[in-house]
Amino acid sequence: MKKCYFLIIICGMFASCKQQADKLPIYGRRTPVEKLVNGSKVADTVYQTIPSFKFLNQDSVLISNHSFDGKIYVADFFFTSCPSICPIMHRNLMVVYKRFKNNNQVMFLSHSIDYKYDYPHILKKYADKLGLTGTKWQFVHGSKDSIYSLAKNNYLVSVGEDGRAAGGYVHQGYLVLVDKEKRVRGAYDGTKSEDVDKLMNDMDILLKDEAR
Known about the structure:
Blueprint: H1 2-14, E1 30-37, E2 40-47, E3 54-57, E4 62-64, E5 72-78, H2 86-100, E6 106-112, H3 120-130, E7 137-141, H4 144-153, E8 159-161, E9 169-171, E10 174-178, E11 184-189, H5 193-210
Parallel strand pairs: 5-6, 6-7
Antiparallel strand pairs: 1-2, 3-4, 3-7, 5-10, 8-9, 10-11
């Protein structure tokens, strides 16, 4: 419980942090290191990144972290039978998708936390219902351990099973922004239109920054 509470506090801070106009913060663990530059030791920082993964997508195609190389992307955690926040999250995320639909530097990645039911053919029906085709927005199925560990330890989002909750699962409705180096650069409440607007603004900032 203590770890989950910590995650909620950290994620809640993401969208409210004040940022420089042309630079987004980098979230997660960081390790100070020294490197040699022209024969001299220089202090540097190694940031936490999204680790290697492999999941089946809605087309039953195995995708990996390399599928997002050279892209920024927005990640979230949901389940197709969710009766509460997921429909709102994905309705709002569709606004973001349409805004960046023709930008080949942007992708979307939705992880199902319902490992018992949301197999690729179910995810395919869900994507079809949203009117989505192609590979820009990936919906993925994986084992409980792989999805839940990735959510909590790397995307810093709390997810879990709860028989008392509507639909049997609980999760935070954050849309997580990841840069081309696989670093978390922000998280935004996908149920709030003002947070979604901020996400789109921060995506513009990130794209400009990484184009330099």
